[in-house]
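Good morning C.,

I know you're traveling, so I'll keep this short. The sequence:
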Amino acid sequence: MHVVHLNGSPRGDHSESGKVAAAYLESLRAADPGLTVDRLDLFALTPFAAAGASAKMDVIAGEDVAGDRRAAWDDALATTARLRAADLVLAAVPMWNGGIPWALKLFIDTVTQPGLAFAFDPEMGYSGLLGGRRAVVVYTSQVYAPGVPATFGTDFQSTYFENWLRFVGIDRIETLRLQPTYAGDPGLPARRDRVHREARELARA
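The tokens, ready to paste straight into the viewer:
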């Protein structure tokens, strides 16, 4: 199995989502000695900006990509190839302001390219081209948790990310949630242990 690990946190060893993902990978390696992992630290990605957007429009229009747009497009293609090589997508997704971190949105905008991640038919609409892969997504948030009142936040994190996964054709999705994680919460240690155990059990399964 080949895993692409989307690290959506810049917090290194302090990342709760990263620790849950690490627990999952540890058990997955034990179950599959031939496992390979491609870790993508999303905050290190090159911005997909003006040149990349223009290149995308060239492709959609059926035109050649040339000039300064070529390098930006080649960089986007290289990142997309790393996603397409995966059997399983493991994503560590902390909640930022109710949604996903900007670096994860950058990754999504970089790899969601016509003919690579999706196709479009004028009569049928969009169809994803990355079917056959699975996704395991780790969601963390400091205050929000499923079922809390609206004063504790709203989940545009999992709704957005899973909508994107399905858009590109990945509909076999399993989730792990460590929520909330605010400092001083007396229930956090037990909750953390439980989710790490769930991650290891999911990997073994």
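Safe travels,
E.
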